[in-house]
Amino acid sequence: MNRADTVPTSRRKVTPARVVLQAFLIVTSLVWLFPLVWALYTSLRPYSDTAERGYVSLPGVLTIANYTTAWRNADLPHFFWNSFVITVPAVILTLFLATMVAFALSRFTFRFNLALLMIFTAGNLLPQQVIITPLYRLYLALPLPSFLSDTGVWYDSFFGIIAIHVAFQVGFCVFVLSNYMKTIPMELGEAAVMDGASVWRQYRSVILPLSRPPLAALATLLFTWIYNDFFWALVLMSTGSKRPVTSALNNLQGLYFVDNNLIAAASILVAIPTLIVFFALQGQFVRGLTLGATKG
After folding, report:
1. DSSP E strand stretches across the chain
2. Inter-residue contact 291 to 213 (CB < 8 Å)
3. Separation of alpha carbons 154 and 141, rounded Å
4. How far apart are CA 19 and CA 26, in angstroms?
5. pLDDT 10s digit of each residue in the chain, 296 long?
6. Is 145 left (phi over 0), alpha (psi -120 to 50) or beta?
């Protein structure tokens, strides 16, 4: 046992470096929390209250009326469903493809093993805006069956948005998963082969169950990134009713008037699903982020 662990907290020496560190952490936490707390505070004030007293003032009244108005006026249930249709299949498909590629790259040795991993990793460095023009023309030209797209092409379809999210997220997931799978002892695979397990059985019954911590961490990150995306839906979708919930906030703006209190309430509502996913996978997420930290 480390001697430092046996010393009571109250008897630990308070050094200037520790005081500076604690002060830095407190200030960083307050700076990070300030926009969230201010958005929550603003969302609970009626527009008439802020118009009379100003935004930087004590409230005359606090109410949840902005939340009910935002839920009704922005048609949030419809756009929540659009985000669900895009995000869930994209996360599942990305993790499925990434685990299969990572399994092949980490458990088997072949000629282009390292080159493939470098290609997938390099894909993460490509700015999305660079390919938007050729991608836009490609989406207008590529046909799709009518049951996948009512427009007959990839443009303005859920399938097209899901596909571009999968394409851009697979590289990062392959990089993380392949590095994790390399830490799993090769003897486990060799024992499975001795028991007559096929490659698919090794992947499904040996490697996947042991990869749950990084999969949970990646699922949380992917859900947040894809759910919060606004760029691809704005560029590759022309029908406003098909866009995800992040675009629904734009429906609360008037031509000559913007109620910031109402938009703050809608933003809080839109952020709730990501919080639910994080708290549901919190244990696995933290475990996935700290993998390898205790090895040495």
Report:
1. none
2. yes
3. 8
4. 11
5. 455 455 555 566 778 888 999 999 999 999 999 999 999 999 999 988 888 888 888 888 888 999 998 888 888 889 999 999 999 999 999 999 999 999 988 888 877 777 877 887 777 777 777 888 888 899 999 888 888 888 888 898 999 999 999 988 898 899 889 888 888 888 888 888 888 888 889 888 888 988 888 898 899 889 999 998 888 888 888 888 888 888 777 777 766 778 888 889 988 999 899 888 888 877 777 776 666 555 44
6. beta
